[in-house]
Amino acid sequence: MRGCSQIYAVRGAYSKQRSNFTGLLALLSTVRRLPRVSSPTFLLVDGHSLAFRSYYAFAKNRDGGLKNSQGVPTSICFGFLRSLLDTIEAQTPAAVAIAFDTAKPTFRHDADATYKGTRSETPEDFIPDIQNLERLLQAFGFTIVKAPGYEADDILGTISKQAADQGYTAKILSGDRDLFQLVGGARSVLYLSSAYGSGRAGSAAEFDRNRVVEKLGVPPEQVIDFKALCGDSSDNIPGVKGIGEKTAVKLLTDYPTLDAIYAAIDAGDPNLKGAVRKKLEADRDAAYHPSF
Predict the structure, then answer these.
(1) 3-class secondary structure, 119
(2) Gap between the Cα atoms of 175 and 53, Å rounded
């Protein structure tokens, strides 16, 4: 496959550093030691995002997902690897790293006991499938990165910045819109549709700054405040009750940040009035709930 000989360029540097934060720091120092180059692609993969996309793409069929002849679930392995290899073929990256969450609580759970509290339990057949996937990825020589106490998103954000600082074009393969906040300069997101894991949706859509604005109505630097206003049920972020996406976009068009919105309210800004003002005042604490 075209580009295959290049994707393992940093594998050796990561291979012994997969399970703890010390390993992540060592990984980052390795990225800093990579030679400066003229914008080759560093592909970063949101492992659990692609795994869930793959699982649910096949779990809805009449047989309840893919299995091998021994009954071992294979939806994740099949969908993930097909999508990953298709992306590698399309992007021809110089380096690849795949980030996964760990089972341990993160610093966000420590700060907020309700964080992601509305999510349903992981399906039983998901666990052996993703465990087999990690074994396959390691056998193929792909780099897997984990950091207990941190999410894959934290790893992706940190490594993508370090890679971009060293002259790489960092592309993050994910179905998580939270990562749009990282877009800018040499960083973009290859956004997965809900059907991507099954291969029905073709290539992932690449989001640069302009495309983030087209999708959300706000630029990357306002994504955090956008979610603070309208909430995110998947992460159990309440937002301001009664403030939807359109109103959040309007507010962030008129005021650059959440802080600026509330400063305007406190200053008696006449442009903030009526029902919207009342909702913002009533749910100020909820708006500042996702402050990390």
Answers:
(1) coil
(2) 8
Q: Which residues pair with 191 in a beta bridge?
A: 174, 205
Name the 3-class secondary structure at 38: coil
pLDDT in single tens digits along all 292 residues of the chain: 333 222 323 333 333 333 334 444 454 444 444 455 567 999 999 999 999 888 988 876 666 788 998 999 999 999 999 999 999 999 999 999 999 988 766 656 465 655 554 556 788 899 999 999 999 999 999 999 998 888 899 999 999 999 999 999 999 999 989 999 999 999 999 998 765 544 454 568 999 999 999 999 999 999 999 999 998 877 777 899 999 999 999 999 999 999 999 999 999 999 999 999 999 999 999 898 755 5
Contact between 131 and 79 (Cβ < 8 Å):
no
Write down the domain spans for the chain.
4-216, 221-287
- Give the CA dihedral 72, 74, 76, 79, nearest 10 degrees: 180
Separation of alpha carbons 87 and 7, rounded Å: 12
Superfamily of domain 4-216 in CATH is: 5'-nuclease (3.40.50.1010)
Fold of 221-287: DNA polymerase; domain 1 (1.10.150)
Q: What is the pTM of this model?
A: 0.80
Distance separating the N- and C-terminal Cα atoms of the chain? 41
CB 97 within 8 A of CB 159: yes
Q: Are 241 and 282 in contact (CB under 8 A)?
A: yes
d(CA 93, CA 90): 9
* Nearest-angstrom CA–CA distance, 156 and 145: 9
